[in-house]
Amino acid sequence: MARRWGPYTNMKSVLAQEPFVIDHAEGVYVYDEKGHRYLDAHAGLWLVNVGYGRQEIIEAMHTQAQKLAWFSSFGGIANRPSLDLAEYLVERLSPDGMVAVFFSNDGSEAVETALKLSRQYWKIRGRGTKTKFIGREKSYHGVTLGALSVAGISANRTAFEPLLADVRHTAAPDVFHCPHHPGDSFCTGGCIRELERLIGFENPDTIAAMILEPIQAAGGVIIPPPDYVRQVADLCRRHDILLIADEVVTGFGRLGDWTGSRHYGIRPDMMTFAKGITSGYMPLGATAVTREIWETFRQVPGDGPEFRHGNTYSGHPVACAAALANLAIIEREQLWLQAREIGPYLRKKLQEAENTWPQYLSEAGAEGLLGRIRIQGGTDAVEPGYWGLQVQAEMRRRGVIVRVAGDVVTFSPPLIVTADHIDVIISTLVDSVAAIF
Ligand code: PLP
Known about the structure:
By secondary structure, this protein is an alpha/beta fold. Helices cover 38% and strands 16% of the residues.
């Protein structure tokens, strides 16, 4: 254990405890090495959309690994699952306007790919001054330096500054903490005016792209007012700024549609995917692009690569086989309908929990199967995030796994979750609050 340096982990406190080792999983449940069962209200890390232990994904991976576990896909070489997956994705993403897909290994790389595509796209089109990126406060886009530069969770950035210089940030549409119209969940005016002012101040001729999660997940499930995403897309379109929809969490059913972009009625220029593309059975990232971007790159003269970028494991055959089997399940079981049907129930139950303990719970909300609630302690004499961690630990002791963003508890269960599971999750939340305060 001492030698395993965990991601985003306080190793001092981890090493002081017995390790929490997950041993196996089935459906919506994971089991630790001692045999304790936990309802996973977070789908691993926002991603096990089809649930655990799906034999048909495991068999697809096994069959592919036996046939061809790996070969390079550089320079015109391909494997069949990556071709099939690209075709499948383009077909399913055609309502979003996507015509081609570039594969990588995870969400960070999918974002990095989109950022680099944006810069080169404008160079090819003779507008090389368009180099800046716009990100948003409280956003999460990954760990690589480009993805981190456009992201906006300050605590993740500080240790690594200076990050990319050509990045500007605009406000998150956080209705509960809005500097413009606090508490008004139908207002978008302030954020949109701020973004418009930023674009004007920076000069659209210097801006390559804006990146946006349809719902900011890791920042605390920040659900935007209804028209906000469409208004951002309109602004980008009007100012010739590429819009990258980061669908790493919202893709493949979580908001009740194939994509979060479709849920909010926008057609971005690029989309980034990971997580739910394989439901975590294998690592895989994907960046999808419109015809305009695809055709622009085909104009690059010469015999060399048009896009001088690629990962060794781009289009890994076993990962692509896992994705195909996973997406077939989502499609056959129409799991996005689950998010439409169970999502409102999650929202209602979170609201009821808030009504039960209004002195300790606030800011309840859910969109599809992404939910949140804020914990507020009886005293301010603790660090921000303290009460969130207390509730998370108590819920785990009681058999439910959630994540926290500071003092906001977030919910992102597998899409196979039922109303009975939601009842258990929310009653465990309420009981945990009762036990702590
Ligand atoms: N984009 C979003 C919206 C994410 O939530 C994440 C991870 O949580 C990433 C990108 C980065 O993905 P990965 O951790 O697979 O690199």
